[in-house]
Amino acid sequence: MMRGKWTVPLLSISVIILCCITLAVIWILPYLTSVDPAEQQAALFALDHTPMEHVLRVQMYTGGPTDLTVTGTDAFGRKLYAFVRHNSATIIYQSQTVSKQRAEAAVYGLHASIVSIVSAVPGLVDTNSITAVFQRASGNAVWEITARLQDGGFLFAYVDMYTGKLLTSFETGNAPTLQPTL
Prior knowledge:
The chain is an alpha+beta fold. The model has no long low-confidence stretch (mean pLDDT about 85). The chain folds into three domains: about 1-35; about 35-95, Nuclear Transport Factor 2, Chain: A, CATH 3.10.450; about 100-170, Nuclear Transport Factor 2, Chain: A, CATH 3.10.450. It contains four helices and eight strands, in the order H-H-E-E-E-E-H-E-H-E-E-E. It has a four-stranded antiparallel β-sheet, covered by helices on one side. Strands 5-6-7-8 form a four-stranded antiparallel β-sheet.
């Protein structure tokens, strides 16, 4: 008889706790997703305004100006890049460019103290600006390669997407380290 008095309140409290946990997860879940609205808009723009049928990846090119590069495939399975800037997209088929591996090899050949390649992002050169990259590029597209150096710094290099030739590079100093205070 005593057992029945505790069963209903215990079950009720368990259900309330379970509901609170479920609501907390539902509230937090949107903050845990990795979908960036700008990247999502660029992917949708590329799907709507280019021959792209499937999106494989969206990356940010920071070589100036900042663009979003959407990598995907067309209806025939051919890989292409859609460079989305404002409300326009420029496409280049991957078969017209050098591979990411060849661009990375050009950077490895430049600097012996590279620990690893952090990123390799295809991007468009701004044809309205007179920069060292644009003046040396054979076309309108480059690979922006970021590499980690042994001293903790970074190497940023730009490789012509059509020829695989290194256009320019620069390094940052070593990364700051925090010394513990005793």
